[in-house]
Amino acid sequence: MSSTSRIWTASDFCAPGKTADFLRIPYSTTRSAYGWLPTPFINVRGGDGPCAVFFAGNHGDEYEGQVVLRELAQELEPEKLRGQVLLFPSLNFSAVHNGSRVSPLDGGNLNRLFPGNPDGTPAEMLAHYIAAEILPMADVVIDLHSGGRSLDFWPCAVARYGDGHTDIEKRNVELLRAFGAPISYLTTGKAGGAGTTLAAAAQSLGIPAIMTELGGAAVIRQEGLQIARRGVRQVLAAFDIIDLPADNVSSSTQFIRMDSRRDTIYAPVAGLFEPLVEPGDDVAAGQTIGRLHDIDDCLRTPMEVTAPCPGWIACLRSDALTARGDCLFQIFTESVEL
Q1: Is the pLDDT reported for residue 248 higher than 80?
Q2: Secondary element (H or E) of residue 52
Q3: Helix runs in the chain, H state only
Q4: Which residues of 115-146 are buried (b: 16+ CB within 10 A; e: fewer)?
Q5: Domains of the chain, with CATH numbers?
Q6: Strand 271-275 and strand 321-322: pairing?
Q7: For the whole model, what pTM was predicted?
Q8: CA–CA gap between residue 109 and residue 95 (Å, rounded)
Q9: Which of 2, 13, 218, 309 is exposed most, by the fewest CB atoms within 10 A?
């Protein structure tokens, strides 16, 4: 296997100024033998200083981050920057156009493919290029997510924590403080992407990196937009890339720890899912928080879904039609002082 990426761009990331261009992913089909797939980016480079790299559209059906990075791309001007801001507002471009979590071209869930494969599918090639070529330029990384079509989140920022990498974990905590979401949760990610996510790839290089969950259900909500708008600008100010008036800074955040395996509730059977709580609600151990209605037997009593522990609803399933093994809820269980 080659270690050299086949992806290319006509742009020079080190050139000063403001550039909008594409990463070009080779994609040979019957319709276009020598074609390529676009991954749009905006590079804004001013004077000497740190490099911030922001991503959205890693999953195509998560929208708040896509809007915020488009706004930021229009706002930033190189003469006002001390350093560089590199924006990827539609990272998994085919998934964005399809309104789906994964790429319709290869089924690639980009945030489960890092560090990627330079000779693999389009999504694997993109993961490799990001990990090998883009992340090493960064001093800070933010990957903006929401819950997509199947989940609805209490808006929060997220950092990997608890794997023993104490220096980068401390830097991630400071990055969460700078971003300033009302809720910041710490997770090992073992029930999710673990070491295959973009944030994990950045962390493995010693780069502070966080992600978000800004809402979900494949809709755009103002609460998530406002958190992300404020957060990305506060991070740029914290790294001295832009100036931000002191009265515009809000860095108060509540830290919550979650064991993503223990505190995730999965559907034991198929059915129609009826949630009885909302994201952010307080719940008690044993409380009925949802029901599963049998599709085939209308006379069967709905199965009750109960909270295994006290806490707050982190997210819930937004699609009623449910199969065995689907995530119904995650629960934040432990507020921590850091």
Answers
A1: no
A2: strand 47-56
A3: 64-75, 93-98, 122-129, 166-179, 198-204, 222-238
A4: bbebebbbbbbbbbbbbbebbeebebbbbbbb
A5: 17-257 (3.40.630.10), 264-336 (2.40.50.100)
A6: antiparallel
A7: 0.95
A8: 9
A9: 2
Instruction: Write down the H helix ranges in 46-183.
Output: 64-75, 93-98, 122-129, 166-179
Q: Rounded to the nearest 5°, which phi and psi values hold at 75?
A: -80, -40
3-state secondary structure of 122: helix
In single-letter form, the type of residue at position 28 comes to S
158, β-bridge pairs:
185, 211
159: its two tokens: 């950092």
d(CA 335, CA 338): 10
- Cα 278 from Cα 56, distance rounded (Å): 25
| Strand runs labelled E in 104-162 | 140-144, 151-153, 156-160
Cβ contact 115:131 at 8 Å: yes
- Neighbouring-strand partners of residue 322: 271
Please tell me the distance from the alpha carbon of residue 149 to that of residue 335, in angstroms, as a whole number: 28
- Report the distance separating Cα 201 and Cα 232, nearest Å: 20
CA triplet 123, 124, 125: central angle to 5 degrees?
Answer: 90
CA distance 211 to 47: 27
The pLDDT tens digits of the residues spanning 297-318 come to 999 999 999 999 999 999 999 9
Query: In whole angstroms, what is the distance from residue 37 CA to residue 129 CA?
Result: 14
Q: Report how far residue 282's alpha carbon sits from residue 149's, in angstroms, rounded to the nearest whole number.
A: 24
Tens of pLDDT along 163-184?
A: 656 889 999 999 999 999 999 9
Alpha carbons within 13 angstroms on the beta-carbon side of residue 76 total 32
